[in-house]
Specification:
The chain is mostly beta strands. The chain is 0% helix and 56% strand. Strand 8 and strand 9 (88-93) form a beta hairpin.
Length: 213
């Protein structure tokens, strides 16, 4: 018994007796009879087949297991949110299936008039990871804005420790009050600014990032 990946093989005899082995492996000293063979592995499509074994006969079975969908399926309530993985906008909107390799990623979901979701997600190996979240509606009666620019351009905008999935220059909507803004760009030292924004107003933030030594 050989499979294209290490898998569990189960052989069921006519009387219901089950023998198992980890492929590649062999079932020995079997009487002539009809058998049912099942080969399975997490993350792969299970294969089931019937075998007719004659007395004294040797059968060689080569089984190819097909991988199930892998990556992550992201669902939001309500749907239609833009998806950012490690700061990069993905094609499509929730619900969406992304073929990501196993690992930990920073996920951001944004939807107009709803608060953004931001947090880490763990994509598992050889299985389809499921992620769902409910987005909270914003109180659109109390908003303010911050116009943010950086030198050089393209720095990631982080407000109060949470990425906005926006990059300078950009206009960022915030709630009225005090906010701490961080601008990040690879190869440069982060720049930090604090702003106090009143309801309905717009403030400007400019920052020159210093190269890392």
């Amino acid at each position: 018994m050989v499979a294209n990946v290490r898998a569990m093989a189960s052989l069921v005899a006519p009387g219901g007796k089950v023998e198992q082995c980890q492929t590649p492996c062999a079932f020995n000293n079997l009487p002539g009879a009809s058998y049912s063979l099942e080969v399975k592995k997490d993350g792969y499509q299970t294969v089931q087949t019937a075998l007719q074994l004659n007395e004294g006969q040797a059968l060689e079975q080569k089984i190819s297991l097909e991988s199930l969908q892998v990556g992550i399926k992201i669902v939001s309530e309500p749907p239609g949110a833009d998806v950012f993985i490690n700061g990069d906008k993905q094609s499509g909107q929730t619900p969406v299936l992304l073929p990501l390799a196993a690992g930990t990623y920073n996920l951001v979901l944004t939807l107009p008039n709803y608060g953004r979701y931001s947090g880490p997600v763990q994509v598992k190996d050889n299985v389809l990871t499921q992620f769902s979240t409910k987005l909270s509606a914003k109180d659109t009666s109390r908003v303010a804005w911050v116009d943010i620019s950086s030198d050089p351009k393209g720095s990631e905008i982080v407000v109060d420790g949470t990425t906005t999935a926006q990059f300078a220059p950009a206009r960022v909507q915030v709630s009225p009050g005090m906010h701490h803004i961080t601008l990040k760009l690879k190869g440069f030292m982060p720049a930090h600014r604090s702003v106090d924004v009143s309801e309905g107003s717009t403030v400007s933030v400019e920052a020159s990032l210093k190269p890392q030594r």
